[in-house]
């Protein structure tokens, strides 16, 4: 599939170590990675983080949602960005890669993904996954905390 090939190319350039394209409701579409990634669980978490961030922006007066969510650890940096109304893209770079470079690669990939999906026969299937109604901040926090607790017990 073209989106998978795009993610593979993104991984091959050396800046990005992993990339996951998922629906806004957390269903994985495709991924590419240099290491083992549990894409089902990670897709759900990334979609939840992006939805939570959109809700936080709305709570402080924003109307357009967030541009990206960035998570930094000593080993990796993760950027999660909207890919149109129905998808999200997460990219992971190692700690030696500049944050701006990671976000730049993510945004360029999103433009290519949107171009691919606008021409795709499967566009109708992708569009079925529209952005859900905004949940309350409390509901989203509870969902994320519940998922985190389940992951600690596994």
Supply the key terms.
single chain; 154 residues; alpha+beta; five-stranded antiparallel beta sheet; 5 helices; 5 strands; globular
Give a structural overview.
- The chain is α+β, with helices and mostly antiparallel strands.
- Helices cover 49% and strands 21% of the residues.
- It has helices at 2-12, 39-59, 99-119, 123-127, 137-153, and strands at residues 18-23, 28-33, 68-72, 76-83, 87-94.
- The chain has a five-stranded antiparallel beta sheet, sandwiched between helices.
- Helix 2 (39-59) packs antiparallel against helix 5.
- The protein is globular, with a radius of gyration of 15 Å.
- It starts with a helix and ends with a helix.
- The model has no long low-confidence stretch (mean pLDDT 82).
Structural class: alpha+beta
Q: Span between N and C termini?
A: 32 Å
What overall geometry do the principal axes of the alpha carbons give? Answer: globular
Residue-averaged pLDDT? 82
Short description:
With 154 residues, this protein is an alpha+beta fold. The protein is built from five helices and five strands. Helix 1 runs antiparallel to helix 3 and helix 2 packs antiparallel against helix 5.
What is the fold's blueprint, element by element?
Layout: H1 2-12, E1 18-23, E2 28-33, H2 39-59, E3 68-72, E4 76-83, E5 87-94, H3 99-119, H4 123-127, H5 137-153
Antiparallel strand pairs: 1-2, 1-5, 3-4, 4-5
Helix pairs in contact: 1-3, 2-5
């Amino acid at each position: 599939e073209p989106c998978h090939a795009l993610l593979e190319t993104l991984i091959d350039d050396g800046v990005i170590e992993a990339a996951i394209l998922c629906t806004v409701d957390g269903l994985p579409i495709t991924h590419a990675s240099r290491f083992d990634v549990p894409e089902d669980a990670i897709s759900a978490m990334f979609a939840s983080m992006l939805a939570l961030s959109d809700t936080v922006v709305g709570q402080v007066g924003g109307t357009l949602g967030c541009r990206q969510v960035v998570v930094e650890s000593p080993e990796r940096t993760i950027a999660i960005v909207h890919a149109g109304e129905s998808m999200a893209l997460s990219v992971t770079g190692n700690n030696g890669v500049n944050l701006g470079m990671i976000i730049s690669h993510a945004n360029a990939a999103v433009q290519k993904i949107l171009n691919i999906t606008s021409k795709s026969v499967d566009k109708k299937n992708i569009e079925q996954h529209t952005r859900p109604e905004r949940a309350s901040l409390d509901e989203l926090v509870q969902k994320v905390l519940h998922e985190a607790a389940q992951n600690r017990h596994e």
